[in-house]
Write a structure and sequence with these properties.
By secondary structure, the protein is of the alpha+beta class. It has a single domain, classed as Alpha-Beta Complex (endopeptidase fold (from Nostoc punctiforme)), CATH 3.90.1720. Strands 1-6-2-3-4-5 form a six-stranded antiparallel β-sheet. The longest helix is centred in the N-terminal third of the chain and has 19 residues. The radius of gyration is 19 Å and the shape is globular.
Amino acid sequence: MKRIFIITVMLAALQSCGTICPAATLQEEAVTVSQKYVGQVVERTNNNDHPQITKWLKEIGLPPGLAWCAAAAVGIFREAAGNLGIQSPLPKMGRVASIWDYCKSRELRFRIFRPDEAMLLGLRPGDLAIWRHGKGVAKNFDGHIEINVAQANSRQFHSDGGNTVPSNAGGQREQSKQDANKGGYYRRTRGLGFGTSFAVEGFIRIRS
């Protein structure tokens, strides 16, 4: 009798969770959405040209042919939010520095991690990695953005991003003239890049 009671309680709890518990957080859903684009969105002539790229750019009010790493990240989070029936808190911006400044100024909605802090405390799926290209302290920096998938070790992580190449030895942000592969949306293993011209500026986590 006691066993039947316990099983009944467990079934009731599972049924309750199935109706009121979210299937995933926004960040987790973003990683799920991101996976379907990895290796599938590839520039046709290395000129930021693909129907999905054009769609992502259009969603944030930008014309075709522009750099699109930010548009991809914002678009994937918008799609993930739609799947969950909520609104994405990320701004519809196409410049990485603008997204970074926007999130930094809204601490109640976003948590910002320094690279050393993020690697020490651990990254979560869906954390947004922000890179600053070139050395210096200019606020309107030229940058890159990707979606963290999993932390590999204390200094590396796996992330999905657009406007890059599949090889970890190729162009960091986008394809270079010497890169044989076309630019696209790929999964890469990334390092923090301390002391280089392509260093992680920090990470953005959406507060749930």
